[in-house]
Design a protein that fits this description.
This is NADH pyrophosphatase NudC (Nudix superfamily). Pfam families: YhfH. It comes from Oikeobacillus pervagus. The structure is a single chain. This protein is low in regular secondary structure and 44 residues long. It has one domain. The protein contains 1 helix and no strands. The longest helix has 6 residues. It starts with a helix and ends in a 34-residue tail after the last helix.
Length: 44
């Protein structure tokens, strides 16, 4: 059983992009599955 919700989110594995397989630089609990490079988003 999970001790606390904080521990749960701290222990989530890093997300990987579904297109290129690289580790994503986003919050692990977000819903996105494609990295910024694969969807061609650039910082403004």
């Amino acid at each position: 059983m999970v001790k606390s919700i904080v521990d749960f989110f701290k222990n989530l594995p890093a997300k990987k992009c579904s297109k290129c397989g690289k580790q994503m630089e986003e919050q692990h609990e977000c819903y996105g599955t494609v990295c910024n490079n694969c969807i061609d988003i650039q910082d403004l």
